[in-house]
Amino acid sequence: MPAYRDQSAEISAALGTLPTGTAVSAVANRLLDLFTGGSIAPGTRLPPERQLATTLGVGRSAVREALAALEILGVVDVRPGSGTYLRGNASELLPQSLRWGVLIGERSTLELIEVRSGLEIFAARLAAERLDDDQLAELGRHLDGMRAGVDDLAAFVEADLAFHHLLASNTGNAVLLDLLQLVRSLLRVWVDRAVQDPDQARVAVAEHAAVYEALRRREPDAAASAMAAHMTTAAARLTGTLPPDPDRS
Questions:
Q1: Sign of the alpha-carbon dihedral angle for 232, 235, 240, 241
Q2: How far is CA 120 from each of CA 70, 106, 126, rounded to the nearest angstrom?
């Protein structure tokens, strides 16, 4: 494990100030920019919250929330009574910057939902051409799990996720799988809330069954069409779980 270092003065100088009224996401992004710049070594102890807040010209609560978000993402290590430390080096942090940027940035969840729909439809088309019989049988078992979980929504959600993951995993396209996993992980908090009652679960089961039947018949166009129908209703359910956006009111 690297020795901890204290570069408070250098970090404060590098951060600069932020505009008045800056959101937590901007504080977190400013810290990320610094951490992925290569000038801060792993194990470096960050300045205290009060010093960071003063340097950035923001409230301590904004700094505290930004650091909490970065801790969840594995960027920093918060040690009570000791301080907050940078976990990785620039080469380790940079490959994940897209995920962090979307997670803590002010991106549109609606845009993520649109991207997910397109990726899922393409995955269904490829899967219809490439799934083998064993993979198709496993997909059917996940569909059965969804049916069994209609009255247990937590179990339903897990079977639903497993269905989509297996489908994408067997498209033979690793880039497509990576993109879908990224978008799904960013939407997971909303996906978990999207199906809110057994009636909605039954609708989703029927939609997945239509996709499965098209896959079983090895019909790419039908599989893509069935997935498009599912994505339309799934997107509507997801959108219904989002908090109101003042920019769209």
A1: positive
A2: 29, 24, 10
Which residues, other chains included, contact 21 with Cβ-Cβ below 8 Å and sequence gap of 6+? Answer: none
Nearest Cα residue to 162 out of 146, 151, 179, 177: 146
* Segment 66-91 mean pLDDT: 78
Entry pTM: 0.59
pLDDT bin (cut points 50, 70, 90) of residue 190 is low
Distance, in Å, from the CA atom of 80 to the CA atom of 143, rounded to the nearest integer, reads 45
Q: Are residues 77 and 125 in the same domain?
A: no
Q: Decide which of 79, 104, 129 is a domain's last residue.
A: 104
SS3 content of the chain, % helix, strand, coil (to 5): 70, 5, 25
Q: Do residue 123 and residue 95 come from a single domain?
A: no
CATH number at residue 9: 1.10.10.10
Region 49-56 average pLDDT: 88
Q: Which residue has the higher pLDDT, 142 or 103?
A: 142
228 phi, psi to nearest 5 deg? -60, -40
d(CA 140, CA 208): 10
- Using CA atoms, how far residue 157 sits from 100, 162, 164, 224, in Å, is 24, 9, 11, 22
Bridge-based pairing state of the strands 44-45 and 5-6: parallel
